[in-house]
User: Fold these one by one.
Assistant:
Number 1:
Amino acid sequence: MTDSTDLAGRRVGLLASRGEAAQAAAAMLRRRYRWADERDAELLVALGGDGFMLHTLHQMLDGGEVRPVFGMNRGTVGFLMNDWRLDCLGERIAAAKAISVAPLSMRAVTIRGDEWTHAAINEVSLLRETRQAAKIEVVVNGRVALPELVADGVLVATPAGSTAYNFSARGPILPLNANMLALTPIAPFRPRRWSGAILPDDTCVRFRVHDPEDRMVSAVADQFEVRDVAEVEVSLDRSRSMTLLFDPEHALDERIATEQFAT
């Protein structure tokens, strides 16, 4: 067992998803290195996939104590993770490139008047709950940009999330330093030619659901869902930025840029 100074001379905590591969990797790392208690750590190593990384970031946001995270992929896609390797972890952490990621803030009001707030690292999406298409008014910085969007839904994505659901909905991939947000319709019916917009990241987007009791719509901030919404407001919250650590040759900003040329 090596001393914790081998982990970049810092108090590093270890987190792992419940998956078999992540648990096996955690066991090997615990035998190789000495770890700080998660509550006392100044930096975290997370083992799992993108879902577990999002879970880890949300746990920190909810707890109010945000710390840098170095992820290693023991899940499926691992776009937000580094490659898994047992050796030289301290050196990797010391040489890691820090990437700042700011979350979206969602405020959703239901048809009953209940109000919910939640953060989203990837995207906030509005989705129809029934067989009927959603009818949604889109307001940008207080101005009605679209009086009525008829679609399966609509989403706002950060650059970090632009390669996820946003890209599947044919939205644009945004470079990480673009200071932009993607506003993307999901299976739009009217206006037929509207494919979305790219907005400055200081923009406030408000969605008003038409006929919300008949054409019910849910709002989802990453994995957190609020059903039967009447109005949803989305904006970027720079005051809650988080830091992800990446191997320099595997950094998130460069991989997002490369995704624009994927075939």
Number 2:
Amino acid sequence: MKKRLYTENEIAELLGVSPITVQRWEHQGKIPYKTINNAACFNRTEIVKWAKEHDFPIQHSRTESRQLIVNQNFLSRAITRGGIYYHMPGSDVYSILKNSLNCLLFLKNVDKTVLLDELLNREELASTGIGKGIAIPHSRNRLDLNLPEAHLPLIFPEEPVAYKSIDKIPVFALFMIFSTTTKEHLKILSKISFLLQNQMIIELLQQRKPADVLLENIRTIESAAE
């Protein structure tokens, strides 16, 4: 597939200069471009590389800016939508998942029995207890839950639950994944994995800190990585 070439106007917007400036750079041989059908065309990757080499700031287009806003604090926003729940009753995997589902208001029009079966089927395949006292329960199959965006409820059991985790440590926090697409699901997994590399976050989860404290720290870690 051929890469899309950009016009002088588009490159001018990207670089935050006028099209006349771009034309001047072309004639002076300062900027990489190609001539096709008597018109200057630009490879965006080459221009971005050129801009970095010349310490020239890149201006995001309106579309890119909107995408940045969507991606900003993706994980903390998903947790906010899902909610943070403390003292969830449940002495084993079955009961903690069942009780958690019954508390999730955004699933009010979903058959919780079917959803519980899906979560348990995934646990039977392989435990979602990933270690360090954390589990990330999710369904094996993609379910249509009629959610506009990902929801990631954070559940704190009343007491740590034996979860057949890879390191045998009882689970004290569960991130329940409810995504809308496979791509979104993989993105959540990746961001949770990155988040849990931070020992401070593990300790905050162990201490069951208030929701605002947890979210503030998660946002800080996300922002530093973006």
Number 3:
Amino acid sequence: MTLTLGISPCPNDTFIFDAMLNGLIDTEGLKFDFILEDVETLNRMSLNGALDISKISYGAVPKILPHYKVLDAGGALGKGVGPLFISKNNIDISSENLENITVVLPGKNTTAHLLFSMVFPTIKKKIFLPFHEIEEAVLNGVADTGVIIHENRFTYQQKNLIKLTDLGDEWESRTGLPIPLGGIVARRTFNNLLLNKINRVIRKSLEYAFENQDTLSDFVKNNAQEMDEEVMQKHINLYVNEFSLDLGIAGRKAVWKLMEASFNIMPEPAGGNMEIFID
């Protein structure tokens, strides 16, 4: 059985999915026709149910529930992993007069946008660009501020950009839960046997990666965007952890909490209350 799969080219995804996509483990009869796209592109594709399995932002889950269920394996959650709110200049974010500030964000459907909207509801002047263009947009004056994700956490200081706040810290202080950044979803029309097989294969792929992580694979290195190996390894170490193997109770609770926050900001999606997770 061949399934379509969308993941990002970021090291955390290629690290997790390498073994199952490149014949390094038993995939239990499953084959994968995969594409590599940035997460916001995958979010938009998932809105239309374009792929059988996809990486998505957890912030997009309410909008894609008619098409998908959330798997337990393959996601990115944790503490100290949140998006950073940055600027070229020091800005007093404690001020109540933030309405005239412009911010560039990595996609309308991203968890970063949802977290930013929770913390700074009065900032409405928003520009959306691919995540790897945000630092330059702030440096070039396209926007006053930006929200960065992924490996930009490790590069913004080299460009003399200033961290105004860590949106993940804001989430953790309010909820006490890990930050649910991105997860893996599969078609809700698949039966439970298939959904659990997909989840099991992803977990086996990650277990293989953990067992062989002394050297980064060519699949990881060749798909990383202008990243040296030290940054790739930092990226994997930050975003791949025990929650990537299994959401568990705390992970599922964090995703539910993010959905509650989403419903306070946007209307409930068509379809009403639907099962979120695989059984």
